[in-house]
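User: Okay, second chain of the day. Same drill as before: sequence in, structure tokens out.
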Amino acid sequence: MTAPSLDVVAIGNAIVDVIAQADDQFLHDQGLAKGAMQLLFTPEEAEGLYAKMAPGIEASGGSAANTIAGIAALGGKTGFIGQVANDQLGNVFRHDIAALGVAFTTEPREGNPPTARCLILVTPDGQRTMNTFLGASQFLPATALDRDLIESAAILYLEGYLWDPAEPRAAMREAIAIARAAGRKVAFTLSDGFCVDRHRDSFLDLIRGGEIDILFANETEIKSLHETDDFEAAVAATALHVPVTVVTRSENGAIAMVGDQIYSVNAEPIAQLVDTTGAGDLFAAGFLAGQVQGRSVEQSLAMGAICAAEVISHYGARPEADIAALVAAKLGS
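Assistant: Same drill. Structure tokens below.
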């Protein structure tokens, strides 16, 4: 088995985020559940909500793509696989991710639907309500997988958000097989409670089948996965089958269970909570970067907390400060 030339390759939704401020009344008027993620099924739905939003910030996003951007900012060598359309937003996404030094070889898709976009409404308390039109991203075929890219990475990282459409779900299953055959690790994030509700059985099949080496979840997701209110029991049930289980707990920090050992980290203090968009994505970035750097589980958790704290201190799901410098200042290089 050859040594990996990349640290992490991710497969996920290739999305352009539009982030705008909103108040609770606006969410109520639009029938939106605060803090949740809902799917918009047609371009017309997306355009209708966009027209009612306040002026926003546009930036390339997508959960796994945000994680890859964070790892790249921490000095990691990364790649990304995701489907965009051959349109303006697709070109924006391709330019942005290439500018980070991320290997992105997926060919654009011709015709409709257009490139995916996520309309993110941020309330004054920093909570984000996401409204996602998946567009072209849900048509990632297995034939679009770059086998060499997957085999070259120490870790393959997959997002649960992309599990819903049949075509990319099949592609991710194929990618898991490629990575495991090459002796690489597979990391998976549950992404959101709605993903767990829709795909609980298949997620549990992956976990219990030994397909996942590192699982990321938040407290709500891990309890929903096992349909219990007992947090410790849910984590323990997962850890029976997953070598490393990482669970974020918002202001209460995060834990990792490795075998029968539990490690924990406190949330990093911040001056002001501005926007929680990308908090879990950047936590995963810090943790994975720590692991490929050979750091301990405790230090990897600390890196995740540092990265998450940076991204919730401003609008947008990509780091603005030098997170590598922040990590070095606190943990050393």
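The chain has a mean pLDDT of 94.

User: Thanks, on to the next one.
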